[in-house]
Amino acid sequence: MTQQPTERLQKAIANAGVASRRAAEQLIATGRVTVNDVVVREMGVKVGPHDAIAVDGVPLSHPEHKYFLFYKPRRVVSTVHDDKHRRTVTDFFTDEQVRLYPVGRLDYDTSGLLIMTNDGEFANLLMHPKFRIEKKYVAKVQGIPTRTALAPMRQGMKIDGKKLAPGRYNILSSDKDKRTAVVELTIHQGVNHQVKNMFKALGYPVMKLSRVQYGPLNLDGLTSGDYRALKPREIQALRDLAAGQNQAETRRL
């Protein structure tokens, strides 16, 4: 007798495009998920293709996976729902017939490149910290930093007791009259408010911030609020990039 393949419940929910794996765990913990009409609150429960899974009473379906590159505007929340009734990233995708969610987050007042998908496995792959996908930001800061002043960014800073991985920076321009500068910073970590906290720790508070590149992707051809479907080669490039980082991590171990 052939054994049916199984997977963890939270992964099955994520793969169905309902939510990210982390959000799926929250759905389970709060009793919003049933398996074969029984509420499941425990993590790690295994399910198979013949199990009937429902979230909030709605059976799981498996729509076609969609992948979008989105130019998130400022003053938009990187979440599916917002208790404060602010505009969310999903409000820009009302014409799409699938439930999408963002891969990672950008702060409410940060603009720039955000990937939207209903493929939970793909989202988890990109967000896993060990894969070290580079993100490039452009920040307008108060003050005019020198290369020496920003040197700690290259060395790896320690903020709030957490050691951050080294980043690469480039001072793009400065305005002596307004005492401001524009700096490009490339990092691969995703620590909360990382870019703002790095500049603040060095004495150059961020006035405006945008993410302009994510791995091989950039915002060329888009304006704020626009989005486009990712091309198959772009999706594969992200998968290959993550896979390459995983192999490098394995070799280091």
Automatic annotation (TrEMBL):
Show the Pfam families listed in the entry: PseudoU_synth_2 (PF00849), S4 (PF01479)
Report any one BP term from Gene Ontology: enzyme-directed rRNA pseudouridine synthesis
State its Enzyme Commission number(s).
5.4.99.-
Its EC top class is: isomerase
Keyword RNA-binding assigned to the entry: answer is yes
Superkingdom of origin organism: Bacteria
Keywords recorded for this protein, A-Z = Isomerase, RNA-binding
A molecular function (GO) term: RNA binding
Q: Which residues cross the membrane?
A: none
Where's the RNA-binding S4 domain?
7-64
Similarity comment:
Belongs to the pseudouridine synthase RsuA family.
PANTHER family, alphabetized: PSEUDOURIDINE SYNTHASE FAMILY PROTEIN-RELATED (PTHR47683), RNA-BINDING S4 DOMAIN-CONTAINING PROTEIN (PTHR47683:SF2)
Protein name from the UniProt record: Pseudouridine synthase
Query: What organism is recorded for this protein?
Result: Lacticaseibacillus nasuensis JCM 17158
